[in-house]
Amino acid sequence: MTLKKITIGTLCMFSALTVHAAGKPNVIFLMADDLGYGDVGFNGNTLVQTPHLDGMVAQGIRFTRFYSVGPVCSPTRACIQTGRHCMRFGMINVNSGKLPSGEITLARIARAKGYRTGHFGKWHLGTMTKDPTLSGPAPKTSAERYGPPWERHYDVTFTTETNVATWDPLDETDLRIPKHRCHFWSNGVEVKEDWQGSSEKIIMDRAIRFVRDSAEKKTPFLTTIWFYGPHSPTRAGKELRDLYPDQPLGRQHYLGSITSIDREVGRLRQALEESGAAENTLIFFCSDNGPEGTGDPPPDYDPYHGVYYGEAGGFKGRKRYLYNGGVCVPAFAWWPGVIEAGRTAYEPVCTLDYLPTLRELLAYEMPDDRPIDGVSMLSLLRGEAWAPDRFIPFASNLRPKQSPSASIISQGHKLLLWFDKNKPDELYHLQNDPSEQKNLISKRKELANELRAKLIIWLKSARHSYERGDYLGHKRQGRFIPTPGIDL
Q1: Fewer CB under 10 Å: which end of the chain, C or N?
Q2: How far is it between the farthest Cα atoms of the chain?
């Protein structure tokens, strides 16, 4: 081959990538529920079968320090949608509020730029109906928590308010908790069918239809696909369980529910390929928090204890904790032609960064100066220099006796505050001590004080947002974490 041919070929390839990166890529946000850091093959689990997820990681970028921010479901989902910490608008817990209509969301940004938007799967950011007999948890507050995705800038929806069983969602044989009984909704209408098999497949069937329709219309699309598994009630069909014949029945169900997610991701990729959309699609994957339960499952299978088999990857804590086991989750991004295959990112990134990344990607101008807590990681995805002056804030009061109430990641360290005179604060080095075993609070007092001051300033900003709001129409909901001894 001549030098001229090589040069022309190189220029053509460079031109194609430039146009590709500068165009309007489709964007898909995938999220599992209660999936632990160590529950996937790409993070070292040699037992679970996740070939499609592992394959995407091999072609994309794996995040080794990806933080859900929320240690439970709704807070994380609120952070994803807004790029703002959930405490700014009172969604620090589950079933106690709704995503305010005044928030700028992923779907709102995408729709403003001519995208078709869709949401499929669990929502948990408000009720689907004002009728308490059809609502899930906290039915008495269904009307005040009414905030479905079709009233949050999503064009096409197929969703449930909260979790359903991961297999045969209409089977109520062992569903002791009423909120897990199945009500699927599509744009304000309850959809009743004889739902059988994988709940992940039920939602992915509709998501794939959305993808194909968008591709046929030659319309860019954004969709959030939020899976149910492996959150309880954790079930898997026999064929999935049989993949793990040497395991206890409870672990068979748990691992099978994860493999079910993996298979649906494989179907999604196939649909993208067949529709010609794969080469212009950016996909993110993460979990909403760490694994549920104690990590010590009972001997007999129970769909509400299956998640106890979840692996936190050697991290301290689990769901509801601000330690890494509760908020450091498996995650990756996949974007053919833009993300260099096989990359690993060691920089801390989080769900708060999704919206700023989308905003930069689509050149969306915010209508006001409301505080945004995330930063764009678009340069990181593209393999460019990325060294933002950033910190990641955390706040929760779900385990006041077992977990600190607020935390901050900055300067390669993680500071955790208890706001309890009987419990010393904690400081850990992220890379050297990800399992948070060596408290440096007494050895690095100057750094601890610096991070503490930064966290308190942020808490004051968040309290201002919570009390007074950052836009017209703000209504206070939920609660703010107690900060005894700190004047916010």
Answers
A1: N
A2: 75
CATH of domain 392-468: 3.30.1120.10
Q: Which residues contact 455 (CB under 8 A, 6 or more apart)?
A: 393, 406, 407, 408, 415, 417
H-helix or E-strand spanning residue 107: helix 106-112
Q: Which of 153, 101, 147 is nearest to 124 (CA)?
A: 147
The structure's pTM equals 0.95
Q: Which residues of the chain have pLDDT under 50?
A: 1-22
pLDDT of residue 173: 87
Domain boundaries in the chain?
A: 25-382, 392-468
| Whether 71 contacts 325, CB under 8 Å | no
User: Cα(414)–Cα(427) distance, rounded to whole angstroms?
Assistant: 6
Closest CA to 224 of 201, 207, 200: 207
Q: What is the pLDDT of residue 232?
A: 95
- Whole-number Å distance between alpha carbons of 408 and 342: 29
Q: What is the pLDDT of residue 2?
A: 36
Measured between its terminal Cα atoms, the distance across the chain in Å is: 69
What pLDDT sits at residue 20?
A: 42
- What's the CATH superfamily of 25-382? Alkaline Phosphatase, subunit A (3.40.720.10)
Other C-beta atoms within 10 Å of 283: how many? 24
Place of tokens 């106690």: 96
Token duo for residue 252? 């068979």
CB atoms within 10 A of CB 177: 13
Q: Which two tokens stand for residue 408?
A: 């901050």
